[in-house]
Write a structure and sequence with these properties.
Layout: E1 8-12, H1 17-30, E2 33-40, H2 49-56, E3 64-68, H3 70-83, H4 100-114, E4 118-120, H5 129-140, E5 145-147, H6 158-167, E6 182-185, E7 190-193, E8 223-230, E9 233-237, E10 240-241, H7 244-257, E11 262-268, E12 274-280, H8 282-298, H9 301-320, H10 326-338, E13 344-351, E14 354-361, H11 370-373, H12 385-402
Parallel strand pairs: 1-2, 1-4, 2-3, 4-5
Antiparallel strand pairs: 6-7, 7-12, 8-9, 8-13, 9-10, 11-12, 13-14
Length: 408
């Protein structure tokens, strides 16, 4: 019997130094069998080497799980989020946040399939990810146990981690070209934290950015693209139908080429402190602009305004780790209902960090009616009708003013 009654644990395993140390630590500290799960989320690095590293650390071949979940990630998590135009604190496109519930889902699935008692992750006790992983896991399996090494062990410095790795023969050679920043990458974004970024008044160095061209060095000629939407989701780029992950990958390449999607912000973490981070979200930045453009001609006014009121709450739920909550599902149902008529195409010009909408159309659901809104002579709108409209809406002010109440 292992420590705390845990005989088998499923570890979210990247194959990097930190999770390799965690793997060995779990074996030593909990005396339990370890199952590894490595997810291909489009992070841009090979995931297969994680298999060889796990084998070297004594993991049985049948206990090594490597899954390509890029399509599921974009189709079932990213796109539903973008139907809401979700951004956290006015800027952040939630690239890390939206990936965590999917990883938690697969951890729990593998735990159920292998008879594991617990899941484990490498998130620190200071960050948001510990909350996202664990709330997601408990929501999907209320009986699961969670091991969070960073909240238990005494390896609380880089020196202690390196010493532990050296003692146990864990590979510590730095990868060629590896960023010194704390990074998270997937098909939606790359995030950067730490080092000079811990000073919010210190500008990030240009060499930090690993995905996008600097807007200063981007092509001097703009590039026009067209995105087709069906029920709120992008389905074709320049007339070519694409699967969800193919669409985001293509938009990422276009956005990165034109210096689109860089962000430097200070955000409020769920656990209480402020955090400065930098993000690259080229495809997501294009997608947000395009989606709002097609909504502008297909959504009813009050539905559009209600969506904008709900969006900050929806975004906060994702940021704080409540993807599997009943309130998120309730909001998602309302958002998805609003998207039934969000069908059409948007033309955009990409130019030196900018996404410029230059056209939008819907053959089936266009609410933009030239006959009503033209500045030229029309035969459908009687401008005299506005007299009563204005008087009725001003009536409460008129009554209060006549009663001596000051409105100004």
């Amino acid at each position: 019997m292992g420590k705390n009654g845990i005989n088998k644990v499923v570890l979210a395993y990247s194959g990097g130094l930190d999770t390799s140390i965690i793997l060995k630590w779990l074996q030593d500290e909990y005396k339990c069998e370890v199952v590894t799960f490595t997810a291909d989320l489009g992070q841009g690095e090979e995931v297969e080497p994680a298999r060889e590293k796990a084998l070297k650390l004594g993991i049985k071949p049948e206990n090594i799980f490597i899954r390509d979940i890029r399509e599921e990630f974009v189709r079932d998590y990213v796109f539903p989020m973008f139907r809401a135009n979700a951004i956290y604190e006015g800027e952040y496109l939630l690239g890390t946040s939206i990936a965590r519930p999917l990883i938690a889902k697969h951890l729990v699935e593998i735990a159920n399939a292998t008879g594991a008692d617990a899941v484990s992750h490498g998130a620190t006790g200071k960050g948001n990810d510990q909350v996202r992983f664990e709330i997601g896991a408990y929501a999907l399996n209320p009986n699961i146990k969670v091991i969070a090494p960073w909240r238990e062990w005494e390896l609380n410095s880089r020196e202690k981690l390196m010493a532990y790795a050296a003692k146990h023969g864990i590979e510590i050679a730095a990868k060629k070209g590896k960023s010194p920043y704390s990074m998270d990458a997937n098909l939606l974004h790359i995030s950067y934290e730490g080092l000079v970024l811990e000073d919010p008044n210190c500008a990030p160095q240009e060499e930090m950015w690993r995905w996008s061209t600097s807007p200063k060095d981007a092509p001097n000629d703009g590039e026009v693209i067209e995105i087709e939407f069906a029920s709120g989701d992008p389905v074709a780029l320049n007339g070519v139908p694409l699967k969800a992950h193919e669409m985001l990958d293509s938009l990422n390449k276009l956005g990165a080429k034109h210096g689109i999607g860089r962000l430097d912000m200070v955000e409020n973490r769920y656990v209480g402190m402020k955090s400065r981070g930098c993000y690259e979200t080229p495809g997501g930045t294009i997608l947000l602009k395009a989606h709002r453009a097609v909504e502008s001609i297909t959504l009813d006014r009050e539905a559009a305004h209600l969506k904008d009121e709900l969006m900050p709450r929806f975004a906060k739920l994702i940021y704080n780790g409540y993807w599997f909550s009943p309130e998120r599902r309730m909001l998602q149902a309302a958002i998805d209902e609003s998207q039934k008529n969000v069908n059409g195409t948007v033309r955009l010009e990409l130019y030196k960090g900018n996404v410029i909408v230059i056209g939008r159309d819907s053959k089936t659901d266009n609410l933009f009616n030239t006959a009503y809104c033209t500045f030229e002579e029309d035969a459908v709108y009687d401008q005299k009708d506005a007299n009563g409209f204005i008087k009725l809406n001003a009536l409460r002010f008129i009554i209060a003013g006549k009663n001596g109440r000051k409105n100004g």
